[in-house]
Amino acid sequence: MKTLVCIFVTAVVLTHARPSMAQNEESAEAVASKRIGVGYKIGNGLGFVGADVIISPVDHVTLDLQANWFSASSNGTTANGYGFAPAAQFHLFKGQVSSPYLGLGYVYATLTLDNVTASASGGFANLGYEWRWSSGLGILLGGGVGYIGKVQATNGVETVEAPGGTHFNLETGLRYMFF
Questions:
Q1: CB 159, CB 152: distance < 8 Å
Q2: pTM (2 decimals)?
Q3: Distance in angstroms (rounded) separating the CA atoms of residues 52 and 144
Q4: For residue range 91-131, what is the model confidence (pLDDT) as tens digits?
Q5: Rounded Cα–Cα distance for residues 100 and 90 (Å)
Q6: Most Cβ neighbours (<10 Å): which of 16, 43, 145, 147?
Q7: What secondary structure, in 3-state letters, does 21-83 show?
Q8: Secondary structure element (H or E) that encloses residue 110, with its range
């Protein structure tokens, strides 16, 4: 929770530091020329250890390919897993500059404990804001709704299913666009 508060406060402070109009135009050109990047990404139901590859093929659209690793402990046992959350983000402003966005994505996660593996998939929709600077650095902060379908667990012989459901969703990331 403290991490999210720190990111939010940083974002608010950076938003109030406004450069001149000429600097904005130069900054927009420099950022617009950077279409590929990498970042640290958390959220979308996948935990705090994640990364993403960012590809912006055209103005207004960013493809965000998120992957996470996570573990869960209970009663002295630890389960490990991973998840993927590819998404398309549609930005309001042209030119790959700081902008509000709508993100639509798919999520898949799997978790293994001893010989039992559980998995689930679903989708999400987020509204948020991405701050971008001419250096290539960016901060992403969004929230929305997620849906997880049924969860299936199997040990190779027996399979158990549990219902999924709809939940509140958060995502945040620190990005660097370099090409």
A1: yes
A2: 0.80
A3: 19
A4: 999 766 899 999 999 999 999 998 999 999 999 999 999 99
A5: 9
A6: 43
A7: HHHHHHHHHHHHCCCEEEEEEEECCCCCEEEEEEEEEECCEEEEEEEEEEEEEECCEEEEEEE
A8: strand 99-113
Contact 107, 146 (CB under 8 A): yes
Domains along the chain with CATH numbers: 2-177 (2.40.160.20)
Q: Which amino acid is at 12?
A: V
The values of phi and psi at residue 167, to 5°, are -150, 160
> How far is the C-alpha of 134 from the C-alpha of 168, rounded, in Å?
32
Rounded Cα distance between 173 and 139, Å, is 6
CA 18 – CA 15 distance, rounded (Å): 7
Which among 156, 174, 167, 153 is positioned nearest to 79, based on CA atoms? 153
3-class SS at 47? coil
Tell me the C-alpha distance between 113 and 144, whole Å: 30
Amino acid letter for position 154? T
